[in-house]
Amino acid sequence: MRVATSLLATLALVASTVMAGPRPSDTIVINKKVLQTSKVPFIPHNGTALFTNWVGLNVDFKYVQPIFDLVNATHSLSNGTLLSRGESHVTVILPPEYDNILHPAGVTIDELNALASHNNRLQRAKFEIECLGRVQVVSKPDNAFQQAVQIILKNFGDIVAYREDVYKLFVKKGGNPALFDPWNFTPHITLGYKIRDIFVEDGVFKGKNACIHKMVAK
Ligand SMILES: *[C@@H]1O[C@H](CO)[C@@H](O)[C@H](O)[C@H]1NC(C)=O
Ligand SMILES: *[C@@H]1O[C@H](CO)[C@@H](O)[C@H](O)[C@H]1NC(C)=O
Ligand SMILES: *[C@@H]1O[C@H](CO)[C@@H](O)[C@H](O)[C@H]1NC(C)=O
């Protein structure tokens, strides 16, 4: 009897966990303080290995974690459970942009970090929330189902202005303008993923195209 009761309680808990979360008509609300990124420090990312040099706008994970927890607990959003990095940021210069394009033209990570931290410019950038997004693809050649969930941004002109200044520096150093597009950019805050994060290189685009649910900051 005790076993049956506790089994029932467990089943009820599982059912409520699976069924909890927003209905399609609900809007997910994130604390608007997440937009006040000037309150958290700029974190430089530099190293000697490939994929260790990139520029990010640091985002306070305190306001992102509740959204991760909600998505992770809502099957219609997460389609299972997700891995978290335990931190949050907006990638502004992607590792392959640095490794393959900017660095070969003589642009250094120190220059990019100096440009980002001058007057705390990047952390002070204004942006807004477009939606909750999700991208899925079967990766090649391993044939694995991949999925990543993210907060997609809009009205991020300040961030693009930084990329435009990176573009000017790149061209001044003799970089080929065809290889770096400051405007070809879909900023987002990664929440979690199934196996690994997935990127343009995997064939997915994290713009408005990837929205799966309404989200608002307030
Ligand atoms: C990263 O940048 C800092 C500050 O410029 C420097 O002291 C450090 O040596 C750099 N690390 C690597 C691995 O390049
Ligand atoms: C959910 O994930 C499975 C793989 O775990 C995948 O085959 C399926 O297409 C996904 N479905 C949805 C609706 O995301
Ligand atoms: C996501 O949800 C699963 C199932 O409830 C849980 O085991 C896991 O710890 C959660 N992930 C994180 C990073 O909190």
Automatic annotation (TrEMBL):
**How far does the signal peptide extend, from start to end residue?**
1-20
Query: In what residue span(s) does the Swiss Army Knife 2H phosphoesterase domain sit?
Result: 54-199
Keywords, comma-separated and alphabetical: Signal
Q: Which residues form a coiled coil?
A: none
Note whether Cytoplasm occurs among the keywords: no
| Name under which the protein is recorded | Swiss Army Knife 2H phosphoesterase domain-containing protein
